[in-house]
């Protein structure tokens, strides 16, 4: 039977006024039980419980009312009641969590975070890791823009033993940060992704690219491997650099050889890498240069291959494998001038390395080709000394006098064989320089490296059995041959077609004195044969050039350049013709030959040096161009715009 609510409440009020708290509570309990939705009475009962010190009963009464208001959507009332509970029971986690939920619904995120943070701290204090992680995750879900909270939540998931779940949370956070343009923060989060999930290739690749973009190769190395790089040329280039800098040449060079045919940008980066490695790891640098050269050879670009190797040996002098490769490329590509320069460097490298036998073979070839060059004589002598050859000067004197002939290998020469004998093998011609045996080494043609002009056996000048025309590269005009006596026959087997010229009566060297042999040989041969014919061919080359008969001019100038006296002008004109045709690499070769010869005047020499530096700069050969301009500046000081070019090239070389 229901009680009379009003009379019961009046009775309870009287009891309160009389100070009889327990009696009043009993009356309010009757009303609350019979009228459970009488929320004002329930709230008053809760207050009376608080006055009586019955906090548990008070909290339960408040919670019942607050839950009802929260369910009905009366959030401010519910929030007030939950706060009343926390006032009497500050550590009531259930109430704090309920209040946090209500605050979130009200949009009071700061209040919600305060309640959840208090719960997390309490759980952490008592060592409840799982419970703490739960609250941290709830905190992160409150505000997606709160990066710190989301990161802390993901870390909590990782700490709880769920790295996969943590990695996904980190990925989501990194994606949001990237969308907001916060790329630096996104990279920080991606590092956490990789820490939780080391097999995440996409994240590793993004981190590697970012590290490379900032120039941080060490960080890129942490994330790069072959699987991560995949088919991405940029990542593969970076991986190759990492491998080479770490000294793992097989892996690094294997990648380089895969990449050289990719595109011009990648090749340029490999070339830059080669130059960067020259100081720390020359073998790694040569591997890169060699790969670029091989790619050029495959494309039939012989001058480009030679230029690459030339630049390498400029930066790493006397590197034997590189010089061997350079000689090989020059022989195969018909780059005669470059090959002779490489042979000089290779002979010096062999001498430095103590490889006397190899040095002596090359030095002998150099002396046979240019016996007037004292540097070649000295190389040959040093090699013979290292081989413990008795009386090396006597050996050299015998070679020069013709008593002990030179045996040389000239890949650019074709020596006509007798008509009754088969032609010599095309790849190499081993020629014994003996009396009456013509030997000419024609320079490499500019247009077709594979073509070789046959030697005219009528053009022959000998001294002591040594063919001066061959060594001085002079081709004098044919002269009628007088009648022979004593039944002498022409060794070439072509007497009727090519009558032999009369022998020029040059004196024989008297003995084994090397200095006397060399002085007589150089002076008389150059004066009587090379200079006159060189002047004729130089004049002919000028005429052809003026008539715009370029091919004929080139052939005449190639003959003129053999004469030391006319080499500067002839080589300069050849360089000019090459530049007109856009053949800059060949132009550089001829200019380099020209600067080795005496210039007609100081101004001519400086102008040629300036043109050489200018051409090298246009080819992108920064280091070589800078060296030329510095040499020019040291010689003459202020000259044209040399200072401006030096400043610009210095900035390019240093990356400034």
Q: Topology, please?
A:
Layout: H1 5-17, H2 21-34, H3 39-51, H4 55-72, H5 75-88, H6 93-106, H7 109-125, H8 129-142, H9 147-159, H10 163-179, H11 183-196, H12 201-213, H13 217-223, H14 226-229, H15 233-245, H16 249-259, H17 264-277, H18 282-298, H19 302-315, H20 320-333, H21 336-353, H22 356-369, H23 374-386, H24 392-401, E1 407-409, E2 430-432, E3 462-463, E4 466-467, H25 468-472, H26 514-546, H27 550-560, H28 567-580, H29 584-595, H30 602-618, H31 622-636, H32 642-654
Antiparallel strand pairs: 1-2, 3-4
Helix pairs in contact: 1-2, 2-3, 3-4, 4-5, 5-6, 6-7, 7-8, 8-9, 9-10, 10-11, 11-12, 12-13, 15-16, 15-17, 16-18, 17-18, 18-19, 19-20, 20-21, 21-22, 21-23, 22-23, 24-26, 26-27, 26-28, 27-28, 28-29, 29-30, 30-31, 31-32
Provide a descriptive summary of the structure in words.
The chain is an all-alpha fold. The protein has a domain at 1-107: Tetratricopeptide repeat domain (Serine Threonine Protein Phosphatase 5, Tetratricopeptide repeat, Alpha Horseshoe). The protein has helices at 5-17, 21-34, 39-51, 55-72, 75-88, 93-106, 109-125, 129-142, 147-159, 163-179, 183-196, 201-213, 217-223, 226-229, 233-245, 249-259, 264-277, 282-298, 302-315, 320-333, 336-353, 356-369, 374-386, 392-401, 468-472, 514-546, 550-560, 567-580, 584-595, 602-618, 622-636, 642-654; strands spanning 407-409, 430-432, 462-463, 466-467. A two-stranded antiparallel ribbon has the order 1-2. A two-stranded antiparallel ribbon has the order 3-4. Helix 7 packs antiparallel against helix 8 (129-142). 42% of the residues are buried.
């Amino acid at each position: 039977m229901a009680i009379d609510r009003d009379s019961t409440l009046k009775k309870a009020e009287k009891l309160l006024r009389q100070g009889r708290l327990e009696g009043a509570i009993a009356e309010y309990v009757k009303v609350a039980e019979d009228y459970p939705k009488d929320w004002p009475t329930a709230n008053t009962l809760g207050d009376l419980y608080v006055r009586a010190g019955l906090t548990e009963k008070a909290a339960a009464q408040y919670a019942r009312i607050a839950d009802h208001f929260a369910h009905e959507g009366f959030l401010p009332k519910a929030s007030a009641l939950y706060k009343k509970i926390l006032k009497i029971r500050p550590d009531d986690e259930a109430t704090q969590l309920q209040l946090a939920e209500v605050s979130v619904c009200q949009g009071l995120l700061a209040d919600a975070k305060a309640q959840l943070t208090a719960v997390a701290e309490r759980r952490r204090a008592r060592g409840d890791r799982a419970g703490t992680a739960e609250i941290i995750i709830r905190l992160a879900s409150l505000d997606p823009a709160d990066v710190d909270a989301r990161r802390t939540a993901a870390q909590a998931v990782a700490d709880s033993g769920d790295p996969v779940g943590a990695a996904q949370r980190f990925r989501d956070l990194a994606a949001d940060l990237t969308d907001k343009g916060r790329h630096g923060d996104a990279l920080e989060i991606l590092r956490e992704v990789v820490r939780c999930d080391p097999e995440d290739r996409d994240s590793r690749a993004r981190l590697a690219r970012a590290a490379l973009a900032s120039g941080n190769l060490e960080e890129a190395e942490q994330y790069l491997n072959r699987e991560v790089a995949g088919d991405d040329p940029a990542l593969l280039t970076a991986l190759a650099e990492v491998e080479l800098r770490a000294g793992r040449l097989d892996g690094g060079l294997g990648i380089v050889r895969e990449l050289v045919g990719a595109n011009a940008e990648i090749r340029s980066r490999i070339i830059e890498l080669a130059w960067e490695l020259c100081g720390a790891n020359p073998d790694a640098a040569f591997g890169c240069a060699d790969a670029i050269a091989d790619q050029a050879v495959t494309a039939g670009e012989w001058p480009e291959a030679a230029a690459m190797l030339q630049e390498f040996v400029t930066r790493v002098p006397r590197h034997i494998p590189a010089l061997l490769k350079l000689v090989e490329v020059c022989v195969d590509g018909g780059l005669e001038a470059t090959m002779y320069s490489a042979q000089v460097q290779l002979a010096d490298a062999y001498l430095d390395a103590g490889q006397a036998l190899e040095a002596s073979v090359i030095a002998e070839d150099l002396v046979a080709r240019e016996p007037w060059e004292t540097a070649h004589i000295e190389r040959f002598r040093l090699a013979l000394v290292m081989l413990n050859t008795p009386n090396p000067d006597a050996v050299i004197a015998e070679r020069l006098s013709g008593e002990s002939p030179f045996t040389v290998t000239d890949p650019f020469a074709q020596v006509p064989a007798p008509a009754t004998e088969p032609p010599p093998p095309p790849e190499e011609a081993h020629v014994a320089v003996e009396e009456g045996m013509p030997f000419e080494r024609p320079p490499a043609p500019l247009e077709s490296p594979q073509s070789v002009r046959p030697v005219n056996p009528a053009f022959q000048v000998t001294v002591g059995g040594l063919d001066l025309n061959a060594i001085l590269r002079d081709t004098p005009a044919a002269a009628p041959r007088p009648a022979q006596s004593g039944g002498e026959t022409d060794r070439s087997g072509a007497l009727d077609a090519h009558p032999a010229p009369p022998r020029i009566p040059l004196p024989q060297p008297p003995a084994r004195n090397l200095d006397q042999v060399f002085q007589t040989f150089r002076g008389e041969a150059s004066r009587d044969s090379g200079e006159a014919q060189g002047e004729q061919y130089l004049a002919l080359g000028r005429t052809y050039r003026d008539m715009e008969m370029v091919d004929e001019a080139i052939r005449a100038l190639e003959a003129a350049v053999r004469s030391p006296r006319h080499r500067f002008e002839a080589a300069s004109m050849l360089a000019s013709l090459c530049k007109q045709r856009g053949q800059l690499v060949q132009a550089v070769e001829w200019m380099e030959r020209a600067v080795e010869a005496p210039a007609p005047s100081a101004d001519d020499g400086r102008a040629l040096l300036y043109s050489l530096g200018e051409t090298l700069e246009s080819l992108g050969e920064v280091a070589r161009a800078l060296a030329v301009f510095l040499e020019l500046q040291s010689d003459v000081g202020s000259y044209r715009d040399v200072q401006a070019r030096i400043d610009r090239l210095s900035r390019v070389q240093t990356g400034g």
